[in-house]
Give the backbone structure.
Amino acid sequence: MSWILFTIIGITFWSFANIVDKHIIDKRLKNAVLAAVLFEFVSLFPAFWIFLAYGLPKPGPLLLLAFSAGLLKIASTWLYFKGLKVEEPSRVVALYNLSPLVVPVFAFIFLGEVLGPEKYLGIMLLVSGAVLISMKGVSGFSLSKAFMPIMASMLLWVMYYIVIKSAVDSIGFFQTFALSAIGSTAFSIPFIIFYKKEAGNAIHSKKLSLLLIFSKSLGFAGLAFIMLALSSGYVSLVSALESIQPLVVLLFSYLLGRMRPELLEEGVGRKEMGLKLASIFLMIAGTFLIS
């Protein structure tokens, strides 16, 4: 059962990264586009070492595919930061939990696959959780400002993974990741030039640079443990267990908001916390049923 421990450690690293990202976009770099491109620039460092260790893959259409995936990644990252800018990290991560809806819904629409009753129930629970997490209070419904950018970000991220999966089977995971990182950086250059003054100030800020590197490192560490979990457990079970990440983010956000409110703002009222917990548990249950 080591896959359970690896998955929990992985989502813990990712949860810390989400909170650091929220601090960056709120307190350090308010430009979501620039935050996304600088965030992707950090990926150049591991990409360089990967090519040193594994060498360059042979030229071919899959290289172009992996390189182009970088555009999907940077667009998804920009929308992620855009959502974080206007919403609490616990809500943003919970909305990302709608990703299990994509595959069965697409399979039904495009392939005509008939879903079992448990999957329809799972979809209903996921949608119900998304509605609840978008409510600002129990007295009325108000769609979160982060809903649309996070939904778009999630869809782009799913497309990114589909493209990456196509290349991984032939090129290998590490080289595919390195190529997509170079692609992200290449697509970032026009934005760096456009925001050159603001980018220069950000790059020369040691605290911001360290935070970006720290967040990316947490993301890499989380991915490493998830890969370990996948190597010793079923993909569907690991994916389902990943759905508890919003709960972990909510816990960390609550604790940090109470101890250091100047670093992170999180709604901690009894009714608001109850609403968030109810929505997250609905989405976790929905994910388990779909998976």
